[in-house]
Design goal:
Length: 364
């Protein structure tokens, strides 16, 4: 007697998938304090894996010491960038008397423009400014406490990232064997292929992102220096650093660079800087990003943007950073599992579409 295979209707499968996604999203939000630094530690561990292997195999260091030295090199690199930015900000602080005069003149010019454009006299403008200032001063204590708490949480967050990075580097072989062991022996080759591709693509993506950041910073510094903008190095570093944040970073860099230029120069210089930042971003988005970063992670713009939006909703700013690597990991997994290949195809870009079309033409 033949046994009939029971198939679930589509709406039942869809309901189960949606419930699972909602439950997973809730757990991810609930465990943000653990998963957030763990994901950054995972990315840093992948980035530092060749360095740690070099110290362990070539320099004959123990695995614990090689992992620690790799992390110290990463911390030194981050502190180097921080020192470069901090030195430029200190130069900005040294010129505070001149900046104060420039800001006062700019405020007077802005008041004149507002009076002529919106017919609001200077007294009403100053009354509004005074009221706003009093409110800010009244809440100064709470703002100071909030700022101190935020800095403390941020330093603790960075410490957790480095701790997770160290443990992942130290126990990397144990974790690798565990993941392979979890799945059946028949799937071992697929699991190993997925893990090797995740390591390779994410490492290339992070290095490409850092290279793109450096190129954008150098180009921005050069353009601002040629134009004759004061603090060209600081503005170039701001444009390069915020360029890491997809989509949102360009607007933040545009706002900060324009405000600093307006405070240290004139409205004309601020407009020139704004146009320069937009032009640099256009060149980066259409030339550098597809060449350096886009070739490493082939994701279409729609999926990338949706991932950034959902990442911000779930984990805030750090979710925006992690969205693209997470989507890239999912795409690698989907592309190697037969039942999930359509989802991997959906995440892909123009390259996957052309490749699929060529394969269809060959089969015909």
């Amino acid at each position: 007697m033949a046994v009939k295979k029971i198939t679930q209707p589509f709406y039942e499968k869809l309901a189960m998938v949606l419930v699972g996604l909602i439950a997973l999203g809730y757990l991810v939000i609930l465990a943000k304090d653990v998963f957030d630094p763990l994901m950054f530690g995972f990315l840093f561990a992948i980035l530092l894996l060749p360095v740690s292997n070099f110290f362990e195999r070539k320099c004959r260091l123990p695995r614990s010491l090689s992992s620690l030295v790799s992390i110290l090199l990463l911390v030194g690199f981050i502190f180097g960038i921080g020192y470069l930015v901090g030195s430029q900000i200190s130069n900005l602080a040294d010129d505070w008397p001149q900046l104060k005069t420039q800001i006062s003149e700019s405020v007077v010019n802005l008041q004149s423009w507002v009076s002529g454009a919106f017919h609001i006299n200077a007294d009403k403008q100053m009354t509004y400014v005074d009221n706003t200032t009093k409110k800010l001063l009244a809440s100064g204590t709470s703002v100071l406490g909030t700022t101190f708490g935020a800095i403390s949480s941020l330093m603790l967050f960075y410490a957790f990232i480095m701790i997770f990075t160290f443990f992942i580097l130290f126990y990397r072989r144990l974790l690798f064997r565990f993941i392979v062991w979890v799945f059946n022996e028949d799937n071992k080759s697929i699991v190993v292929d997925i893990m090797q591709n995740i390591q390779s693509i994410l490492r290339q993506y992070i290095l490409g992102l850092l290279l793109e950041m450096g190129i954008v910073a150098v180009v921005a510094c050069s353009v601002f220096w040629i134009i004759g903008i004061k603090y060209a190095v600081l503005l170039g570093l701001i444009v390069g650093l915020f360029n890491i944040i997809p989509y949102i970073g360009i607007f933040t860099a545009l706002l900060l660079s324009s405000l600093i230029t307006f405070a240290t120069g004139s409205i004309e210089h601020a407009l020139i800087v704004a146009v320069s930042v937009i032009c640099i971003h256009a060149i980066d988005a259409n030339l550098l990003l597809p060449t350096i970063v886009g070739s490493k992670v082939r994701l279409n713009a729609l999926i990338t943007f949706l991932g950034i939006v959902f990442g911000e909703m779930i984990w805030g700013l750090s979710g925006m950073f992690l969205s693209i690597p997470v989507i890239a990991i999912l795409k690698i997994i989907f592309d190697r599992i037969e039942s999930l290949k359509p989802w991997g195809f959906l995440m892909g870009g123009e390259y996957e579409y052309k490749k699929s079309a060529e394969e269809d033409m060959k089969t015909e």
